[in-house]
Amino acid sequence: MSQESATNTTNTYLYADKVAQNPSIIPLVNAVFSVTQISNILKKHVESQFSNINVKAEISGLKIHTSGHAYFTLKDADAVIDGVVWRGTQLNAELKEGAEIIASGRITTYPARSKYQMVVTQIELSGQGDLLKKLLENKEKFQAEGLFSNSRPLPKFPEKIGVITSETGAVIQDILHRLRQRYPCHVLVWPVLVQGKGTVEQVTEAIKGFNALDDKPDILVIARGGGSFEDLFAFNEEAIVRAVYESAIPVVSAIGHETDTTLIDYAADLRAPTPTAAAELITPDLADVRSTLIHLAKRLLNSYQNSFQHCSMRYKLAAQSLIDPIKYTQEKSQRLDDWVERLERLKAAITLRFEQKLGTLTSGLKPPKHQLAWHYDRLKTLSDRLVSSLEYCLERHTISFQNVAARLNQSSYQTTLNKGFCLITTEDKKPICAMKDIKNQSIHIRVKDGSVKATLSDVEPKINS
Prior knowledge:
465 residues; five-stranded mixed barrel
């Protein structure tokens, strides 16, 4: 390969890297890309163009992986696209096989298998999309305004209960039948429509009407049987939710079945899963109340009897242990007189003993003048002894020093020189003690009254005899 061809190939690869990093650049016709580079370019193009889209389709082949991710196919009559919901994604509706939905999310590619898929972040059931959207908007709005903050305690023994429901149907009969069984009380029924046109207005008017009564009920129950999402939607409307929140009477919501949830469930003080359950939640069971009262009455009677017997026994024991107060006072008075006499005698004895001790101590005291004279004589004696001891030590050490000096003078080389000897040293003042220390050098000869510098001319070793 020529140098020019190699250079062109290198430039082409460098350009491919630049396009992979910035897909907005239009690639050259002759540019060479790796599989990874072209996959990344396609991925970035697709994700930038379809980052937030809505797709209406049917769910098919739904599979929930052990990791928690959901994999499925979105299809219509002519095409399919893979879909995925990552674990932890909060959806407004449940994923179901065959369900018609409107999926919201983004399109991405999966380079490992050369396919594209939709990452779903939210879904709406098709046909209920507008209603779901309105419900979610209302829920968010009401929650921000604090309309879901009611949680007032309900009276345990209500005397009057107001019920807002249809006058026909099984709901009101179920509620009345359950109340007769558990807790017969006065029930006021305000008949309203619970489905279709006029429901919102009539329910709102009923809530306000109960609150306007002089003799208000203790609890309000808003009840309706089960139905479809559209049938129950009236109870998600703003007018009813606000009326429930503003009610001065505690409100219990009993709309639909246990799986049905409406916005007045959040605004009410209590949510009941069914109308029959509402009758049970707001009233006690009189049979249980009677049984409890009888049990408590027995416990109270037993406690009273036990307490009476205990107090009676304590009274008798206390009466037996009481003594005659006059005798008790006389005995204590006599004992007090005895203690007073003993204290007087003890006081006199202690006073006499301290006086004797004080006299003894006073007689043993000596005048300060005699004490000072004695200490002065002792100080003079010690001072004389100290001076004598110092003089003796000085004299002894002086003699010892003179003896050492004399011995040192006798051992000095100056004394040896005075006897006629001489000291021979080298030029660097080292003594010459043997023939091995003599070299061809000048020497110094020191006698008792000076020194002489000499030069060696002949060295004769010692001849052994």
